Structures are given as C-alpha cells and as structure tokens.
Amino acid sequence: MNKALLFKEWIKTRWMFLLMFVVFILAMGYIALRISSAARNVGMPHLWEVFILKNVVLLDQIKVLPLLAGIIMGITQFIPEMTKKRFKLTLHLPLGENRIVCLMLSFGMVCLLLLFTVSYGGFLWGLSADFPREVVGAWFATILPQVLCGFASYLLTAWIILEPVWSQRIYNAVIGLLILSLFMVQGVPGSYIYMLPFLFGTLLLLALYPKISIRHFKEGMQ
Amino acid sequence: MEKVIECKNITHYYGEKLIYENLNFEVEKGKVLGLLGKNGTGKTTIINILNGYLKPRSGECYLLGENMNHLTPATKAKIGLLLEGHVQHTYFTIEQIEKYYRAFFPNWKRDAFYGLMEKLKVVPHQKINHMSCGQRSQVALGLLFAQDPELLILDDFSMGLDPGYRRLFVEYLRDFAAGGDKTIFLTSHIIQDMELLIDDCMILDYGRLLIHKPTREIMENFHRFRFSLNEGQVPAEHEKLWNTEKNNGQWITYSFEPLETVRQLLESKGVQVSDLKEETLSLEDAFIGLTGKY
Q1: Tens digit of pLDDT for each residue in B177-192?
Q2: pLDDT digits over B228-242, tens only?
Q3: Which of A3, A217, A218 lies nearest to residue B103, judging by beta carbons?
Q4: How many CB pairs under 8 A join A and B?
Q5: What are phi and psi of A85, to 5 degrees?
Q6: Which of A64, A94, B62, B217 could form a disulfide with B77 if both were Cys (CB 3.0 to 4.6 A apart)?
Q7: Which residues of A, range 85-114, sit inside 8 Å of B by Cβ?
Q8: Which domain holds residue A49?
Q9: How many domains in chain A?
Q10: Sign, CA torsion B62/B63/B65/B71
Q11: What ipTM is given for this predicted complex?
Q12: Which domains are assigned to chain B?
C-alpha cells in the first residue's frame, strides 16, 4: 500500500522532478565552467586567493533555486490533490490518516534530498579536487541554509495549498515568507554555522504544519 | 436488521443558514437508499458529514458501526465512495489507476474493472484526463465495482451524463445491489433514474427531512388530485394535502390519502369540489408534489 501511494506521488511529479533535475545540473555545470575558465585565465593560486580573502560565497547566484524547487515540488504534488477536492479520495484510502500524510510529505522531501544531494554534492565534490577541504567545508556550511530553505519552502507550500480557507491561506503565505527569510541568509562563508541547529529544528516543526491544514480540510472549513 | 448507516441528531449550519436540525435516519444492510432534495437542501453536505469531511454543529454518524470521524482502515476498505462529478485521479492512465487502487483492497476484482473498460473501447494506456465525462464516470464506477465494497456512497452519480451512460450506470448498480448484501446510499438530480433503483427514499427540504419511506409506498399511495371549484372559492388547507395550487384554471393537490378522504379534507371549509380526479405519479412527479416547484 505504501508503494502504491508513492507510485501516485511519482506519477504526479515525475516530469517536473526531472525538469528540475536538468535545471539544477545545468546551473551547476554553468558555474563549474565559469570557475574552470577563470582558473585557466588567472591561474588556480590567484583564484584561491580571491575566493578565500574576499570571502566569495559560491553558488550565490543560484541561491533561490532550492527555494523555488521546494515550492514547485509542493505545487506539483498538492495542487492536483486539492483540485476538485481529490484529497478526499486519498484520505478515504484504507490507511491511517497520519501514515498517508507522512508518506506524501516524505516522498517530496526525499525527492528534494536526492535533487540537492546529486547537484550540490556533486558540485562540491568536484571542487574538492582543486580546493582545500576547509574551504569546501565552509562553502558547504554557507550553502546549507539555502538547501534547507528548499525543504522549508516545500513544507510551507504544502501547508498553504492543503489549507481549504482562502483567507487562512493568505495568512499562511505571509507567515511562510517570514519563516523562509530566516533561511535566506547573507554572509561570509561559514558565518551561519551556529544557526544550523536552529534551522533544522524549524524544519522539524514545519513538518507538522500541513497537519493543521488537513484538520481544517476534514472539518469542512471553507 | 443490521444498520449500515446511522445518523443521530445531525444539526448543521453554513454561517447563519440552517441546513438541518436534529436530522435522524438509518440505512439497513442490503437497502438502496436514494437521497432526494432540491439544490441547496444539503445532499452533498450529508455525504461529506458521513465520510468525516465535514464537522456538523452537533450530532454523530456511524458507518458500519464506526464513528464518522474515526473510521479505521479496515472499515474504509469496505466503503466505496463516488464524489460529485465522478472525481478521480485523472493524471493516471487506465492501467495506472487500476494498479494504484488494486494495492489497497483485498477483494479487488480486476476483471470487473477491465470488463467495463472494454465496453468503453478505451485502451489501458489512455489517460483519464483525455476521456469524456461519461467515460470518466465509467472509470470511477469500474473502480468501485472492482473494490467490491459492502457500502457504496454515490454523490450525484448522474451529473453530466448523457441518457446512455446514465442507464448503463443504473443497470450496473442494480446488478451490484441484486445480491442483497450490498448497501447503496446515493443522491441524484435525475429522479427518473432513482425510480429504477432505490428501495427507500429520503427527501430533504430546506432545514428538515421531509419524508423517509419505502419508494414503493410513495409510488402506490401518493397521488395527484385535480379538481375544480367555483370562481373565487379556495380549498381548505390541511397537513395531509401537499402543495395545493391553481394551475391553468384547474386546482391541483397531492396526498397520501384516498380520493374520498381528500374530497372531505378539501371541502372541510364548506366549498364544493367538482371533477375530483386521482392520478398515479412517477417518482419525479411525487417529488415535485412533496417539495413544490419552487
């Protein structure tokens, strides 16, 4: 039964997921090409100097990509459920309600995890051949809030879409923007490392938010 | 008899508008119950309440003995639900949707589903999105029959269907109910379809349950009476006379009472009734007689 439910989620999201995969790979590829071209033009030692002394935050140009990926994943997964209130069919399945919700959200989170791990992980792994481990580690810590922002935006999008009351949706959207601003931090590499546990905690809390919308949906609030 | 559906003292409002107050009804195992009512009388509302998708202001419903808000997965597996407009997961193809639902229901009857799909001349890889409204309704119906539930709840099953598909739907439902151990609770706007199908009839009016009787009892005992009165005279009103009105110069009333009793009731204010005639009604006419045209 779990497999069948995940199959439904895959059918809904597969094309958008693959498209996002392509976009992420292209974006990473473009930045890798630019670094490689700069290394050829000015030499690797000079590039090291610029990156380290000027506190360059790598991938800053594409920092909104995880955020957008989370929103798109949420929309692709949950808009079809709320269209014509199809979610009633899903909740009517002979499975516990919490299990259904947990499986659906886990599917989205795992897809995003896969997307981010392959694209960002591959990119940083590629860089580790040419840059010191400490520098790559600092970049990773700086990028991590942006990546976590992708998971947060996914959970918040689910919270907003599953909410049946329009005025409450707008309220949720405003709260969602404020929460997301916590994840979209600006700073020198490694500067937000102490904030990461707080962001992880926020993410855990956000995983409970869609349940509030589902309770409203089941009460027939309009 | 075993009660499959039981609703106790359901009261519900949308804002300030009363939908029902203390609505009580039961559906016994093996019965086909039709819920009739004009637009806005709360037919879909009661289906939502029954399935736990709407919290009434007060009251409780039980499906197969379980409270509507706490249906266990085992009980949900025994209930087939058709949402208004034959809503389904239209991003699936025929074979994908069959594969999807098959995993959830232990008594899944694959052949019942594909048998119906063959009649529709649809191919397994056809996307439901690209089908007509009638074809989609049959996909939803095929899935319900493959599930082989003990209780079928159908919300406005005839919505958007042409006469052929409606008839097909009704015939399948009749076959499904024929065994006697299946219970069906349904609503429809097309009352002539119900006549072929339902054992019991429940008619909702604004804010209340108007009547809950076996369909046969309504068809056999509820009649239309046409009569004439002298100019300027008005017949007596009585709770046993339904929706008395003058239409094209002739008076009409409806009643469960026999002709002579109706005559006595009409003349109780001293008017002289002439040409009193009794007419047998279809279920649709009976519905209009009970609820009025407006």
Answers
A1: 887 789 999 998 788 8
A2: 888 888 888 888 889
A3: A3
A4: 67
A5: 55, 40
A6: A94
A7: 85-86, 88-89, 91-96
A8: 2-218
A9: 1
A10: negative
A11: 0.86
A12: 3-88+147-216 (3.40.50.300), 222-291 (3.30.70)
